[in-house]
Amino acid sequence: MRVAAVPRAVRGCRDRLERSAGGLATDAALYGCSTLFAVGIGVVSALPPHRIWGLTAAPGYLIATVVVLAQLAARRRGRAPRLTGRPGRAGLTLFAVAATTGLPLLWQSSRRAAGLPGHAQEEVRVVEHAGQRLLETGTPYLSRAEIAALPVADQLSGYMPYQPGMALFGLPRALAGTVWWNDARVAFAVAAGRPGTALAYLAGTLVAALAAVWCGLTVTRRLTASASADRPARPG
Questions:
Q1: What is the CA radius of gyration of the chain?
Q2: Longest CA pairwise span in the chain (Å)
Q3: H or E segment at 115?
Q4: CB within 8 A of 147, min separation 6: which ones?
């Protein structure tokens, strides 16, 4: 009984929040708290990519907060019902996503492509290096010996803690070089929707298969050439 009561209580709280001012009160709280969070990350984080995201996303959250407060005021006066109802809320949500996710992503990926440091988390580089290794060797992973042979500062990023499929998001950069649109985060964004995920994985799987075949043929040719060179010549 207690286990079943918790979801009902959560659903009841959610429904009450959604009915409060037509959901605008909840929107105002979420956008306001998100603004404070983004500003806090931009000010206190020790990681440059996080600070840049916070300072880039904070204006978008702030604008969304001001707009939803204006929606609340209009609703109380009985004005602009379409702007204060679901269509208006949906439009503001799209704006918030674009301003706080899309804009920081484009900013950081473009600045990174221009050669400026501090615009990508270590996880991004790990995924891209895994994609490069997948293309070159057929596997996204380094062995323990290979990781130990790296400089101490690079050993942590040499370890790929994800499943092999994650390396597919690093393939665009491995194939096309350093430009803003093949940043691994752009690939993540493209694959965020179901159609994008399917296409990304199908394309990545095809490329990975071709890369593995190419690596196998290369290794076979080298072994054959080495065996031929080591074979003693027959007397004439």
A1: 26
A2: 105
A3: none
A4: 155, 158, 159
Q: Which of 113, 118, 119, 159 is nearest to 140 (CA)?
A: 159
Q: How many CB atoms lie within 10 A of CB 224?
A: 10
pTM (predicted TM-score): 0.71
- Counting Cβ atoms within 10 Å, is residue 169 exposed (0-12), middle (13-18) or buried (19+)? buried
Q: Taking the chain, what is the end-to-end CA distance rounded to the nearest angstrom?
A: 93
Query: Cα torsion for 226, 228, 230, 231, to the nearest 10°?
Result: 160
Task: Say how many C-beta atoms besides its own lie within 10 A of residue 164's C-beta.
Answer: 13
Task: Write the single-letter amino acid at 104.
Answer: P
Strands (DSSP E) contained in the chain are none
The single-letter DSSP state of residue 78 is: T
Of 60, 50, 55, 61, give the one whose Cα is nearest residue 39: 55
Q: Can you give the pLDDT of all 236 residues of the chain as single tens digits?
A: 444 555 666 565 555 656 666 788 889 999 999 999 999 999 999 999 999 999 999 999 999 999 999 999 888 887 777 788 888 899 999 999 999 998 999 999 999 999 999 999 999 999 999 999 998 888 999 999 999 999 998 898 899 999 988 998 998 898 888 899 889 998 888 877 655 555 555 565 556 556 555 665 666 666 666 655 555 555 54
Length of the chain in residues, anyone? 236
162 closest CA partner among 201, 192, 197, 130: 130
C-alpha 17/C-alpha 29 separation (Å) is: 10
